[in-house]
Design brief:
NAD-dependent protein deacetylase which modulates the activities of several enzymes which are inactive in their acetylated form. It catalyses: N(6)-acetyl-L-lysyl-[protein] + NAD(+) + H2O = 2''-O-acetyl-ADP-D-ribose + nicotinamide + L-lysyl-[protein]. Keywords: Cytoplasm, Metal-binding, NAD, Transferase, Zinc. By secondary structure, the chain is an alpha/beta fold. It folds into three domains: 144 residues, Rossmann fold (3-Layer(aba) Sandwich); 45 residues, no CATH class; 39 residues, 2-Layer Sandwich (SIR2/SIRT2 'Small Domain'). The protein has nine helices and nine strands. The strands form two sheets. The protein has a six-stranded parallel β-sheet, with helices on both faces. A three-stranded antiparallel β-sheet has the order 5-4-6. The chain starts with a helix and ends with a helix.
Length: 240
């Protein structure tokens, strides 16, 4: 589908929802997970696989090893929004885009100016003490020189508000995302392999007219897309 046709589609829609994954932020310098060269294809540890490190049990059993990986491979404080983030914020300000549903934890949508952002997997910018529950900013995690960041109030271990393997997604957040998708006339899905459940299953709830799928690689939903675009989400959205 040519970009000019996508532009016509977007500006004729009154209720757009965007559903994005790691590919939305790769042009901001944040690597994705499952593509060739992604984080899961790299041996970042000689002992543990990334999926094991990013699990609840591993965090509690080996917090220092978890944070060594997390600080190096999951947190990119210098990253800035790319054209995709910026265009989505513009569409929301125009009233066309009703919600951004993201599997990312980097906070770049909010930094670009988006307001109604549903972060299914949490955010690196929210952290809390496991003992007293007090909230901490990202600086408390990356600015603490100790192997494991500790709460300044009680000395407890700080845990990022990101959904690890073995943890459940927030049910209320999933419900809100489902309602937005069900009410949309256009759903733009971009930068996601659509293999992570239950988040990917949300796309199956869409009943609108236009399912736009933008991704470099094939996904299980390609056959259901009314408009399938192979390419960079940043370039496609910038062309709007």
């Amino acid at each position: 589908m040519e970009h000019v046709n996508l532009r016509k589609l977007v500006y004729s829609s009154g209720s757009i929802v965007f559903f994005g994954g790691a590919g939305t932020s790769t042009e901001s310098g944040i690597p994705d997970f499952r593509s060739a060269g992604g984080l899961y294809e790299q041996r970042t540890s000689k002992v543990y696989e990334p999926e094991e490190i990013l699990s609840r049990d591993f965090f509690h059993a080996h917090p220092a090893d978890f944070y060594s990986f997390y600080r190096t491979h999951m947190v990119y404080p210098q990253a800035r929004p790319n054209p995709a983030h910026l265009k989505l914020a513009d569409l929301e300000q125009e009233g066309r885009l009703k919600a951004v549903i993201t599997q990312n934890i980097d906070g770049l949508h909010q930094l670009a100016g988006s307001v109604n952002v549903l972060e299914l997997h949490g955010s690196v910018h929210r952290n809390r003490c496991l003992d007293c529950g007090i909230s901490h900013p990202l600086s408390a995690v990356i600015g603490d020189s100790r192997p494991v960041p500790l709460c300044g109030e009680c000395g407890g271990i700080i845990k990022p508000d990101v959904v690890l393997y073995q943890e459940n997604l927030d049910f209320d957040l999933l419900e809100r995302a489902a309602v937005h998708i069900q009410q949309a006339d256009t759903l733009i899905v971009a930068g996601t392999s659509l293999t992570v459940q239950p988040a990917a299953g949300l796309v199956g709830l869409f009943r609108g007219d236009n399912l736009v799928l933008i991704n470099r690689d094939a996904t299980p939903m390609d056959g259901y897309a009314t408009h399938l675009i192979r390419g960079s989400i940043g370039e496609v959205m910038a062309a709007l």
